[in-house]
Design a protein that fits this description.
451 residues; alpha+beta; UDP-n-acetylglucosamine1-carboxyvinyl-transferase, Chain; four-stranded mixed β-sheet; 23 strands; globular; binds shikimate-3-phosphate
């Protein structure tokens, strides 16, 4: 797929549902008693893998003709042993949250994934989950494929997150659902709290308070185990991590005006908007409201002259998936942008720090990669853009979409080697961007993932 340098984008877009919330809606629905109806579920490959896994564990899950999803749950502790390997595809969230659920179920299951997921660290969840009594047999370095033998009589967990990770926090809380007594998680850096919000929505008793953790301000999350989760309606807001692509494209193309409706504004997800506004991005936030227990707003992004900024490490968890697209904005900004606290980017769908640096250098942008930070020398206008060599996307949807956005705002087209990963989170990305006026060229039939 090639993105061609373009002119102003305009229009209003309907964005896909939030990936994090979609996974959780299916999982909590499967653990609840009764019928959970989900509106706006992201029908991307990652989430469809979670739906397939929850079905294999005995939940009944159906999509109705109107596009609503229905989950008839089995109740906590009542999932059944899957008859085959659970293939979580490209999804770290799917795999890690599911391991939390399985840890406190008396069954044996085997999990695998694609070449990207099989490289990603799982010990960050299997280690804390072992304390509830579950046994994990993994490849070297705790990698997939791995076998989990869930605990028959799970113990509650008490865990302080060593890395700021909502996936690890959620895995521990999900295991705690099956254990008697109270499960406790302490996080020093706040990470997305979709699990906590949704657990409360489904009737679990979950509390959060500020504490002093050995001299550090921290949050303590306490979950009362073995609740009866009650099936609820879930309305999935649109995904701020997907909104980021048309948003940045609009800022980079002079004269653009793009309206994005109902974008998730959870404070633990909105670091990109704060940063782009600091860079001088014209982003109007309108009609703030709540939808399904999450804050949302309509955003209007207009073509802007951006300037480089320094992004503090404390902000990284609230925009952890947005650094690839921020780096593209930084490439077009005037002056240097320095991003700190990026260590976690090395264990995403690809080593994103390396992938961004390699790709930007190939597009003629000055970039310096440090172990946990990235410096981009902005071009103060259109970056040079691609050469004959394609950008390697390395099974990483956000790398693919980010470099396509760069191509729209560059002097020369940018070519990426593989469009298929985009379907994990944003199957309609190309159509939607083209609807706004972007010019992409792709081989026939290569735009959409086929289940
Ligand atoms: C997610 C948490 C983040 C994020 C991922 C989704 C979640 O990962 O990068 O895309 O849904 O909990 P970490 O928890 O590993 O930071």
């Amino acid at each position: 797929m090639t993105a061609r340098p373009g002119t102003a984008l305009s229009g209003s877009v309907r964005l896909p549902g939030d990936k994090s919330i979609s996974h959780r809606a299916l999982m909590f629905g499967a653990l609840a008693v009764g019928e959970t109806v989900i509106d706006g579920l992201l029908e991307g490959e990652d989430v469809l893998r979670t739906a397939a896994a929850m079905r294999a564990l005995g939940a009944q899950i159906e999509r109705d003709p109107a596009g609503r999803w229905h989950v008839w749950g089995r109740g906590i502790g009542a999932l059944e042993e899957p008859a085959d390997v659970l293939d979580m595809g490209n999804s770290g969230t799917g795999a890690r949250l599911l391991l939390g659920i399985l840890a406190s179920h008396p069954l044996t299951a085997v999990l695998t994934g694609d070449a990207s997921l099989r490289k990603r660290p799982m010990a960050r969840v299997t280690e804390p989950l072992s304390a509830c009594g579950a046994v994990f047999i993994a490849r070297e370095g705790g990698r997939l494929p791995l076998t989990v033998i869930g605990a028959r009589d799970p113990l509650p967990l008490d865990y302080r997150l060593p890395v700021p990770s909502a996936q690890v926090k959620s895995a521990v809380l999900l295991a705690g659902l099956g254990a008697p007594g109270e499960t406790r998680v302490v996080e020093r850096e706040a990470t997305r709290d979709h699990s906590e919000r949704m657990l409360g929505h489904f009737g679990a008793v979950i509390r959060r308070r500020q504490i002093d953790d050995e001299g550090h301000a921290a949050q303590e999350i306490l979950l009362t185990g073995q609740p009866e989760l009650i099936a609820r309606a879930v309305q999935v807001p649109t995904d701020p991590s997907s909104a980021a692509f048309p948003l940045v494209a609009a800022l980079l193309l002079p004269g653009s005006e793009v309206r994005l409706a109902g974008v998730g504004m959870n404070p633990q997800r909105s670091g990109l908007i704060t940063t782009l506004q600091e860079m001088g991005g014209d982003i109007a936030i309108e009609n703030r409201r709540h939808q399904g227990g999450e804050p949302v707003a309509d955003l209007v992004a207009r073509g802007s002259r951006l300037k480089g900024v320094e992004v503090p490490a404390e902000r990284a968890p609230s925009m952890i998936d947005e650094f690839p697209i921020l780096a593209m904005a930084a490439a077009a900004a005037e002056g240097r942008t320095v991003m700190h606290g990026l260590g976690e980017l090395r264990v995403k769908e690809s080593d994103r720090l390396a992938a961004i640096a390699r790709g930007l250098a190939r597009c003629g942008v000055g970039v310096e990669e440090q172990p946990e930070s990235l410096t981009v020398a902005g071009c103060g206008g259109r970056p040079p853009g691609g050469n004959a060599q394609a950008i390697e996307t390395e099974l990483d949807h956000r790398i693919a979409m980010s470099f396509l956005v760069l191509g729209l705002a560059a002097e020369r087209p940018v070519l990426i080697d593989d469009m298929t990963p985009v379907a994990t989170s944003f199957p309609d990305f190309a159509d939607l961007m083209q609807g706004l006026g972007a010019e992409f060229a792709a081989p026939e039939g290569a735009l959409k993932w086929q289940p």
